[in-house]
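# nightly structure sweep
# worker-07 picked up a monomer target from the shared queue
# config: single-sequence mode, recycle default, output format = structure tokens
# input follows
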Amino acid sequence: MQKIHDRLDGYEPGQFKDKFRVLFIIVIVALSLVVLRLWYLQVIKGSELRQRSENNSVRLRKIKPMRGLVMDAERRVMVENQASFDLVFVPNRTKDIYRILDKIKALYEERSLTVATLNSFTGRVKPFVPVILEKNITMEKLAVVETHALELPGVTVEVTPVRQYLNGTMTAQIIGFTGEVTREELDKGTEGILTSGDITGKFGIEKFLDAHLRGQSGAEQVEVNVAGKAVRSLGRKPSLPGDNVVLTIDSELQEAAWNALGDRPGALAALDPRNGAVIALVSSPSFDPNLFNGGISDEDWVKLANDPRHPMENRAISGQYPPGSTYKPIVAAAALEEGLITPETTFFCNGSFDMGNRKFRCWQEKGHGQVNLHRALVESCDVYFYNLGKLLGVDKIAAYARAFGLGAPLGVDLTREKGGLIPTKQWKLNRFKEPWQLGETISISIGQGFNLVTPIQLANVYATLGNGGTLYRPRLVKQLESPDRHVIKVFEPEKMGALPVRPQNIQIINQALWGVVNESGGTGGSLRRPEVDVAGKTGTAQVIGLPQDAKARKAKRVAANFRDHALFACFAPLGNPEIAVAVILENAGHGGSAAGPVARKFIDAYFAKKKALQSGAKVSQVAEGEKR
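# output follows
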């Protein structure tokens, strides 16, 4: 002990002071570093870390809005919304999305539920960005997910509104469908208006009026537990539903038009000549827009995209066809207005018209004999109009055709409308670098050659003739309404111009169109009704040229897809028309025998409904009178 005491006494106080000083400095430096770190975390990074901490228990959930309803002219709902359940993964509790997917698949397979609709996922996940695993899940799948919630951390079910198209294929080409916004759409200046996951219109009215229909998204702060399940709401900004759209379409007449066409490729367009309202617009074949609810499957998309009949093409506004003899009233109007003929002017038809070394045949091989303008339209004499075409020239015909609204889109309330083609000398020179030939004018004069029109353009031509010469822009939208049914905007009739044709000349043509249906020898007898109220014109449009030699023409076998198109265009009743209709059936043969009966069924349906409504009104008036 003495030795130890002696050793301790041997240390000088200065030695302890030096070592203590070093230790003190080390402690001070360490404490300073801790304080600096705390200051950095709380002051410099405090806001960010606080947000991260809150995100561990609070999630911002987007509330998708209800899209506006779409109704017909009589306020029958054509498109509504229904609840859909989407399976969503928020990887704030686990980043192993593959383990979660495998677990869900295993749960599905145990109950023999399909796993094909589960989205495959590649790439990295972000901690607080939701990933949609499956859209529009069934109630069976919903029950599986909810009962195994603790085994599926980060998985939740969100309620999303989806469209329900009540008229299905009959109105698919008009109304269209919706889908999730794409990156390309977000890059087109809609950032801030649209965000990832929003639903937008992709086709038809859904696209044309998307800004009105889609509404505004809301948001909700939701507190979640350790499994990522919602516990309570901390705050909510409700979504705003979109505006409702009232169309000019009558869904009952739309169904009548659809049934009249059947499954044959073609289109029917029906307008009100008094204001340009579209009453029915059918394109066949069509597709089921409900396939796109929740995202169309690869199998269904490939089937639609590869269908050779092109069901997603709206033939009524984008199908372009030679007008055939339905074009003859325009040529007649031009010849009358230019003073080149009078109604009494006659030409002799022996069945053909010679131009150089080429014969242009009339559909009536034996010819029509000596015919004036009235009989030429009634019997659709080609030779008569070959003579008119030679007198007028292509540019004069084109000028009148454009005054009737042909050669450019009419501006109907849909996307992808095409304008057809009305050729001129300059057009051919620009397009083919070749001069115009007189023989081409001969073909143009009966609606063949380069001429192309759409069904809605053709219906508008006859609506314009029927109403006496006022050209209206066809419109599909009647008005926009707020969700509580207050009218926001009314789409009034829009005049595009007036025909450069005197009323007396229009009357001459209309009387001949009445004769097409109601007189002996008329080509449109299939539209003859007891009320003798329909005026119209048949048309048969060649798809390909045929040999000049008669025997060769008969011997040539034409494939089904190269057979003539059948056309019929009309308005009714004569003098005060309420409806104008154009029908085009692809590769169906003659207009009078193929397209005419389709128009007849639709016209009958229109007037039958009108009669029923008038009878109902009379009954109501009588009943009201009895009460008084």
